[in-house]
Amino acid sequence: MISVIHNPNAKQNRKRPERAQRLEAILAGIGTLHQTQSIEAVYDVARHCLETGCKVVGVNGGDGSLQMAMTMFADIYKEKPLPSFVVMRGGTMNTVANGLGIKGTPESILTKVVKGLKGQGPLTRMKNQVLSANGHLGFMSGAAVVVKFLDAYYDAPSQGPVQAVKMGFQIAGSTLAGTDYAREMFKPERLIVEVDGEPLPETEFSIILGCTVEDISMGCRATPRAYERKGAFHFLACSLSPMQIVGQMPKLWTGRDITHPAMHHSAPVEHVVIRSENGAVRWMLDGECRTDETLDINVWGDVELLW
């Protein structure tokens, strides 16, 4: 039995209102589609799955829909093992799916999984650690430039891979031209960063990033040690300037260690606590931005993914 959470408010699903009917047809005889218009509706699906013993949950929405589903299921399931999750790429960016190598449309991914569950085709199973960032479950969390980039991205007239690439080129062009756009984007923030109980001596950071996946977007393997140690995630903290980032780009893209005075930490860790010297911390998890007094990150556990 498979239950699919279909977020009709996800941008790609709003553009394709007929998608729900197609997904229901794929699920015929083996699963149920749940159109979730609210947070409470996702909790209802989690309760339904726990009560019925449902073993597979599809999430047809963006990265935010996936982290919301995992968080709510963990809240309902408590100490019980979570069902397997199918990441169906229903968002505009699908950063998590891309980083994990999951390709296709929601329809093709669900069709493959249904056939696999019926024993009629191959089924990929992967266990991946997930982070708990202030109690929310996801795969990538960070602060400083990653939040500034997302804020600018969401403020743009449109969203999607094309817009993200445009912004990347804009930052690169500003870096080479020496204009303010890149300088402001990478302007260091004053933060107190504690790693596994020990504070880092530095207090200014341009990039803060913790991941349980290697590929953070478009093939960039900025956290290649994400799978190195059970119970740990790759944490990166630096004060690299835009021009220094450009110089390190080949290493960032190919997953090689960066040795630079401005790279203050890059290794697997178990626990990170971040506070701001100027008030609240603006942070993100899988593309969703939040503001809290503190950002507390650790590994929650494993989640099995199917595709």
Count the strands? Answer: 17
| Helix-strand sequence | EHHEHEHEHHEEEHHHEEEEEHEEEEE
Distance between the termini: 15 Å
CATH topology of the largest domain: Tumour Suppressor Smad4
What kind of sheet is the major sheet? Answer: 11 strands, mixed
- State the name of the first-level CATH class of the largest domain: Mainly Beta
Main structural class: alpha+beta
Number of domains: 2
Sequence stretches where pLDDT stays below 50 over 5 or more residues: none
Mean pLDDT: 93
Helix content: 25-40%
**Rg from Cα:** 20 Å
What global shape is seen? Answer: globular
The count of helical stretches stands at 10
- Taken as a percent bin, the fraction of beta residues is 25-35%
Specify the oligomeric state.
Answer: single chain
The second-level CATH architecture of the largest domain is: Sandwich
Describe the structure.
It holds the Pfam family DAGK_cat. This is DAGKc domain-containing protein. Residues 3-117 form the DAGKc domain. This protein has 307 residues and is of the alpha+beta class. It folds into 2 domains: 2-123, Probable inorganic polyphosphate/atp-NAD kinase, domain 1 (Rossmann fold); 140-302, Tumour Suppressor Smad4 (Sandwich). 35% of the residues lie in helices and 31% in strands. The protein has 10 helices and 17 strands. The chain has helices spanning 11-15, 19-27, 39-52, 63-77, 95-100, 106-117, 145-155, 161-177, 180-185, 242-254; strands at 2-6, 31-35, 56-60, 84-87, 125-133, 136-138, 140-144, 189-195, 198-199, 204-205, 207-211, 233-238, 263-269, 271-276, 281-285, 288-292, 294-306. Strands 1, 2, 3, 4, 5, 6, 8, 9, 10, 14 and 17 form an 11-stranded mixed beta sheet that branches. The chain has a 6-stranded antiparallel beta sheet with strand order 13-12-11-7-15-16, with helices on both faces. A hairpin with a 2-residue loop joins β5 (125-133) and β6. α2 runs parallel beside α6 (106-117) and α3 (39-52) packs across α4 (63-77).
